[in-house]
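re: that chain from earlier
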Amino acid sequence: MSTSILEDRIAIKKLDPEGALASAESITDQVKQVWEEQDQIDLSGYKNVANIVVAGMGGSALGADFVRHLYKQELPVSLEISKDYTLPSYVNQNTLVILSSYSGSTEETLNCAKEAERKGAMIAVITAGNKLAQLAQEKNYPSYIINPKFNPSNQPRMATAYNIMAILLMLKKLGLLKFEEENLHQILDVINATTQRCLVEVSQEKNQAKILAYMFVERRPILVGAEFLEGALHISTNQLNENAKIYADYKIIPEINHHLLEGLTFPKSNALNHFFVFFQSSLYRNEVQKRIELTRQAVEKTGIESIEIKLESENKLMPAFELITLGTFTNLYLSYLEGINPCPIPMVDWFKAQLEK
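^ sequence. v structure.
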């Protein structure tokens, strides 16, 4: 394990030839691109949407999860995510089914497309090509076709900003969410500021992403937060799994206060193998802020190390995007410390190959 690679772009490039780091440094460009291309999203033919189901797997479902939790208190209709071959039984002609697959060839999502058609649902598409893009063109479904010019790695999990913005703008065009240019600039400002603090050129002692990456080496990161940040925690955890090839998880307050605290004592190796990161926010309700503090105390009573990161802002959008930006740089830096290329996913590829036999 090199202790200097995080300060060396040439060494990083050798480990990361596909450019996952370049994708991370382009999150603001992804956001701006979707905003500038939003005219291609035409949902004017869809009226009286009673509920929404997003059919997607892995990285292609993360945007929906992010939006669902971020706007849980504002969305006037339910938004559910189907991570399966089938859709919920209630899907009908009043349901909008958003088929989300970056690759455009995810078999579960394509199966949901057939079911959505049989049920007579309204259908929209988010994809970068292949079968799903062809289907959208043939059926004239409203769609956002991703031109991933700001995702040089071409990894779906590194294109999350495309997916988040496409879903946000679909909901805005349906009149289900308010999202104005002011909100766009708030997002861009916080992503830019966080990116600048996490760049390779920023030394470890001033770089939160590098600090976390070193803390995660040979340990299981457990990310803890609440309320509107749940989707952002999910994104960061998935990226740790796929990019850093590490077993990571996320937990939500207050749910874990009712069971997990008793599960930290054994095995005794927990104190060596785990590391908790608590994301605190003044936007949480007061009871939750108190629970975050007490949960951290409980974790440390068992000998497990932790850190608290405060995400402060006047609205929910900014800390959510700050978290996913910080998380993206952290998981990439961890992969470099491990000496691995973050882009290949050999275990997932092996699994898919076995399914096809």
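The beta strands are 51-55, 78-82, 95-101, 122-127, 143-145, 220-226, 249-253, 274-280, 305-310.
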